[in-house]
Amino acid sequence: MSEAAPLTFSFLTLFPELLAPFASEAILGKAAARGLIGVNLVNLRDFAGNRHARVDDAPYGGGAGMVIRVDVAARALASLPPADEVILFTPAGERFTQRTAEELSGREHLAFLCGRYEGFDARVEGLVTRELSVGDFVMMGGEAAAACVLEAVARLRPGVLGDEASHQADSFSSGLLDYPEYTRPPEWRGEAVPEVLRGGNHGAVAAWRREQALARTLARRPDLLPGAGLTPQDSAALLRLGVSPAQLDAWGAPPPPVPKRRRSARRGAAVPAPAAEGAAAEADVPPER
């Protein structure tokens, strides 16, 4: 199987020096050095079209601040190879999420327009394929948002992380917040690492981690649960955590598993089998006569 082509990120910005160190250090720098990703920093001033390298002008209709010209953005984009997506950072854009990162990680070339001042001339919207926002707050420019997207998307590319499966259990990748992690020392200031993590039973560890992820999500981000792809075992765990059956139904969660019945060896009676770990408690089933 041939290796995947590298994913190139092109950032069109007035301040490429803000992104240069971020893209050249740590894991991103190593990934770039190995040819897994490429980071192309394009200075919008190089396409100003005037000897003063001026890229902005006063807004029509008056008002505070300056607006970046559409013709500057168009010339900068035209200098690039064709991009799979041309993305504008703007408060009006769709919310950037882990799902968005996963989608973008499958592309080969992404171009990003990073605004400053009062942003771009509105006609720039006709040059882009997507508008993104990293949150409901205002920054001084798009470079910080670009750094967030670069890291979130690049880490999903094959070979960028040392452990190919490490991102699959991350917060939001599974639809839930991540479970708590522990390392040495085994006890610190009276707080011990949970015994299940030191017992060597991988099945028990996996079950504990899943329930911890559910508990954290329920306590901190319950809005994530309706879209988390819950299983019957998850429903049983959520019931133990105090969620009502009505709430599970509102989330579209499946019913918890029903314990299987087993035959008594001595009397041939049908009795409930011990509930599997993660199953909801059921009323006792009377013996058959």
From TrEMBL:
S-adenosyl-L-methionine binds at G115, V134, G135, D136, F137, V138, M139. CDD domains: TrmD-like. GO terms for biological process: tRNA N1-guanine methylation. It is found in: Cytoplasm. Residues 267-289 have a biased composition (Low complexity). GO terms for cellular component: cytosol. The keyword Transferase applies. Residues 248-289 are annotated as: Disordered. SUPFAM superfamilies: alpha/beta knot (SSF75217). It holds the Pfam family tRNA_m1G_MT. Its main location: cytoplasm. Its EC number is 2.1.1.228. Belongs to the RNA methyltransferase TrmD family. NCBIfam families: PRK00026.1, trmD. HAMAP family: TrmD. Specifically methylates guanosine-37 in various tRNAs. This is tRNA (guanine-N(1)-)-methyltransferase. The gene is trmD.
